[in-house]
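During the second half of the funding period, the structural biology subgroup turned its attention to how the target accommodates small molecules. The most pressing case was adenosine-5'-diphosphate, which had performed well in the primary screen but for which no bound structure existed. We therefore specified the complex as follows and requested a full 3D prediction, including the ligand pose.
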Amino acid sequence: MLPTDDIVYLKGVGPARAKVLAAEADIRTPLDLLLYFPFRHIDYSKLATVASLSEESGMVMMEGTVSNMAVVSTGPRRERLTVDFSDGTGYIQLVWFAGTKWVREKLKPGVVYNVMGHPSLFNGQWQMTHPELEVSTGQRSGTFLPVYNTTEKMKQHGLGSRALARLTEHLVTCIEGIDETLPADVLQRFHLPGRAEALKAIHYPASAEQLNAARNRLKFEELFFLQLDNQYASTSRQRLSHGRVFASVGDCFNRFYSEHLPFPLTGAQKRVIKEMREDMRSGHQMNRLLQGDVGSGKTLVALMTMLLALDNRAQACLMAPTEILATQHYNTFLRMLDGMGIRTELLIGSVRSADKKKMKQRIASGETQIVIGTHALIESDVVFRDLGLVVIDEQHRFGVQQRARLWDKGNPAPHILVMTATPIPRTLAMTLYGDLDCSVIDELPPGRTPVRTYHRTEPRRPLVFSFLKQQIDAGRQVYFVYPLIHESEKLDLRDLEDGLEMVQNYFPRPQYQVSMMHGQLTPEEKAFEMYRFKRGLTHIMVSTTVIEVGVDVPNATVMVIENAERFGLSQLHQLRGRVGRGSEQSYCILMTKDNLGATSRERIRTMCATTDGFKIAEADLRLRGPGDMQGLQQSGVLELKLASIVDDEPLVQATRNLVRDLLDADPSLSRYPELRRHIEHSKNKMLWSKIS
Ligand code: ADP
Ligand code: MG
């Protein structure tokens, strides 16, 4: 039996070390320690020899004897201890700067030791600083020795890797009866070792194969429970929340399709609309994430889905993150629905309050069929007669709370469609959303020429400007985007104004007209600047990232991004999506300083190499790790110890499908008491999937 007490009672720990273990590694119980997995192993059967060392050796273990101990004083109460270590093939100098007294007392000539550490070449001589050292026993518990991450503080308290290994070596002898967490049939089907066996083998494997199997089993377990948490939440939601049934495709949809469709739908658009139709007539509430790269035509899909709601005598609304976008959607809708007699309204903060009041009355009476708006839509005094579908554009801009409030606006809860142009890498989507329905528009409308992207630095600015001049003189328009750099909005504004001045110097009035857009402008001012640019009254738009989302000016063909190294990949991709929306060849120019760090360089390189949003999202995930991805905090992804959603895609896939099948067959998990127990104890109470 594993001792279940406080780790303080484990032989060799005690109060001082227990405190360090808790503070430095979050280890409080023997089980915690057992779950503190080694990050690698040293293969005893492959003891290194001095003769075989190379700069690439990394951490090695060697066996030999010591001689020529020397102590040099390096200051008051400070000394350096060196000792020669020889294994018969050569010798290496071991060096200590601290704890020398202890080492001096311990080392004896003639005794055979194992040393472990990183060898390095110093003046042509192999050295190892602060190696771990112990008397060779000749007989070993296995051929592999676990190597644990330790901090300086842990080492100072005698909790180096080797010391931890002595603790785990003892622990693994008493884990036979440890609880199995995975169902027996799952273990069997996936050929996974039991939990006790895996926990033992991940510390002390008998072979590389066994180690692999153990790691695989433990990764599987992590991903399995992550999936279970997410999917259980979403399936219980499905079981609980009946959706209204949109049984018919009627006049609105059909008339639009045959008479108003401005262009043929792409295959992907058709497929996605069909997926949503299926959802909305299934009797379950639709809760679907629609991913599609910028320009893939999500708006049209949203519109047609909303028409389905209208055909079933429900209202529909579309919520956008900014007034600019809401207004733009509204105008698009008016244009596309022209002549169909569908009452569409725009509800945003800047509507006069008297008008707003009337608008709300029309929404409440059901006279208004489609409402487009911003956050203003979720205010509690906006009451619908019968809200059947909510579309949310650009999901990341909305907080969890805001989205949840939309649920309460219809009874039964309205169908929900969340659209995002920030593609989420496949593995991440699978992990995050579990069983959540996810549609992807993976095809751009025909006739688009991919944006060409170039990286330029300051010395070539004159060339960039003369290129812009050519474009503008040929009738095109240009964006300049500045990042938010400073904490203070004032300073950011100054950067922007400096930028504006530079641009205006090169593109003088009255021949060239320049718009400026930033967060400090009032909604009216923004709308005005947007209008001028959209109408072609201005040639250049100098802007902060407020331009980022959804703005649609097909005649704009060049985007210059200043200080591009300061933007994240997904933001660069979003920004670039503002150009390449028309039939002309478009360009994106990434201006950066000269010396870029490795990751910035990789980001810029990725941008120049591809326009595929999914590839960019994958690169982003790879470069930043999931830690920095938006919205992941509650997802559990960040708590994975072994599994990586970047590298373990097959396992992510396998566990996701498995959990889906289990829940399909047995939604309440009545046949799996161990899984039920997990669900009940799960700290992950946050219904992540509910919000999308
Ligand atoms: P996003 O997915 O970024 O929201 P939009 O819905 O704004 O993209 O569409 C981008 C542009 O593509 C719009 O000008 C839209 O009218 C056009 N578009 C959408 N669907 C098609 C299609 N099937 N064929 C041609 N153009 C399309
Ligand atoms: Mg859009």
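Two results from this model are relevant to the next phase. The chain is about 40% helix and 20% strand. The chain has four domains: 1-39+150-178, 43-147, 251-441, 452-610.
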